[in-house]
Amino acid sequence: MTAQRDRIHQYVAGHPGVHFNKLARELDLATGQLQYHLKKLRRTDDVVAESLYGRTHYYTPEYDDWERGAVAVLHRETARDVLLYLIEAGPSAPAPVASDLDIARSTLEWHLDHLIEQNLVEKRRDDRGHVTLALSRPVETAELLRLIEPTVPERLVDRFTRLVDNLVGE
C-alpha cells in the first residue's frame, strides 16, 4: 500500500462512516486524487463504501451491513439524541420524545424513518393502535454510539433544522 493510501485507510479506520467530502477536506486531498486512491483501496477490499441518504460513507471491512447503516445514521445529531433518549427513558411514545428533545414531530418522524430502516428502532403498536418506540438492538447500538461523534457541520445542519421547525411551529 502506498503512503497516501495508508494515510487514507488509517483515517477511515479511525473515523468509521466518514463521508467523501470530509475525507478530502481533512486529508487535504484533491477530489480526483482521493477518488483514485479510494478506488484502489476498494478494489483490494481495504475500504468499503456505502451510499446512504445522499452521501457515500467509507468503512474498513470489519463493519457488517447493519453496522455500516447504523453508523451512517449515527452521524446525525438528532438521530443520536433520539437513541440516547430511548436508552435513558426506555420504550416511549413518540410525542414525549419529540417534546423532550424540542423537535417537531415531523422531524422526529423523518429521523425515525432512517432509524427504523437501519434496524436501530422499532415501532410497536398495542391492541389500541398506540405506538411505542423501542431500541431494536440496545447493546450493539450503545457500543456504536460510543464510537461515533457527529462533526460540527453535521451538528449545524441538525440545529438549523430544529430552528426552522421551531419557527414554522410557532
From TrEMBL:
Domain HVO-0163 N-terminal HTH: 3-71
Superkingdom of the organism of origin: Archaea
InterPro entries, sorted: HTH_HVO_0163_N, WH-like_DNA-bd_sf, WH_DNA-bd_sf
Protein name: ArsR family transcriptional regulator
Natural source organism: Haloplanus aerogenes
Upper taxonomic lineage: Archaea, Methanobacteriati, Methanobacteriota, Stenosarchaea group, Halobacteria
